[in-house]
Amino acid sequence: MDFEDMLPETLLAQAGGAIDQQSGGVVPPIQPATTFARDENYNPLNQNNIYARPHNDVARQAEAVLAQLEGGAAALLFPSGMAAIAALFRTVPTGGRVIVQSGIYWNTTKWIRDFCERRQIVIDEVDASDAAALAAVCATGPADVVWVETPSNPWLKVTDVAAAKKAAESCGALLAVDSTAASPILTNPLKLGADIVMHSTTKVINGHSDVLGGVLVTKEVTPVWEEIEVDRASAGAVMGPFEAWLLLRGMRTMALRVERMVDNAMKIAHFLEDHPKVDSVLFPGLESHPQHELAKAQMPGGAGFLMSFLVKGGKETALQVAGKMKLFHRATSLGGVESLVEHRHTIEPHTSIPETLLRISVGAENAGDLIADLGQALGQ
Ligand SMILES: *Cc1c(COP(=O)(O)O)cnc(C)c1O
């Protein structure tokens, strides 16, 4: 069977591909060498490998899987999601302009704001889940990058990627999508028109809360992409071979994990929506979500595993509910096989996160156990 034709489940279960010719192993080897030898005529023994900063076989194997999963031409791994975001924004010229979705992953907003200030880059922040609002901002003049995040964190807003692409095109910008909360299993932004998709592979792609990483995948190899590639190789924001190997290993079960997590999340969302001590649930899988229809079209495999809910009462009640949870770990991050709960207001008091909002990342545990934990924490 041709590698190109493999469906995601098959591609992932065999991520890393062919049998290792040297050992016969069914998983790829880790090559920790930082430098690679040359022959008597000074030719590299392996044409692909000269020095480990730009050349890392296992990272290339993981990149090939991610590029194929997203339907892209190429992928580049970075040592964290933020490093991937920074690599893209560093291509924006001094004095340029970027349009960034508001109410997204806080550290993205914070870093982009600081960066734009240093570079005299104009930044327009807009609720891009409102397609008309995004189009209106794009219509005000040319820009370099439009950055959206869908579903957004922690508001779980869904941005219409195809509409965002039209808006970005109208102002000559490339459209980049942070698809971390969706995963490559549930949405493929490049297939919907985006130019670049970004993931924090720290989250569901690795899935085991034990490796930091980030990836950019491009639809086409453009001059901007080549600039990112050259900059990574020489500025050195690379993922090491051990991390890349763990990532590849984690990816092998991604399709299974996402399937279970999506199923658990849907059950939990219904439970919370009906619970008398819950004010509202923010989850695009629920019919009550304002963008439920868009989510169904854009995320046909399910609305993900991330959701927020507002507890009735005040800040103290919300903190008490989080404090009583036994299975959900009280920790930041998302996408791991273990369920997590976060009181976002404590982390980001300066943003307008409601004090009663709890964000949960639903893991791969038994749904009944998770529901029982939420039930006892809320008080039945
Ligand atoms: C975690 C996260 C990031 C940043 O990724 P790191 O790997 O922590 O650097 C960016 N965007 C979203 C949506 C995230 O969840």
TrEMBL record:
Coiled coil regions in record: none
Transcription regulation as UniProt keyword: no
A Pfam family this chain is assigned to: Cys_Met_Meta_PP
Entry keywords, A to Z: Pyridoxal phosphate
Leader sequence segment: none
Cofactor: pyridoxal 5'-phosphate
InterPro entries: Cys/Met-Metab_PyrdxlP-dep_enz, PyrdxlP-dep_Trfase, PyrdxlP-dep_Trfase_major, PyrdxlP-dep_Trfase_small
Cross-referenced SUPFAM superfamilies: PLP-dependent transferases
Family: Belongs to the trans-sulfuration enzymes family.
Name the record gives this protein: Cystathionine gamma-synthase
Source organism of the structure: Shimia sagamensis
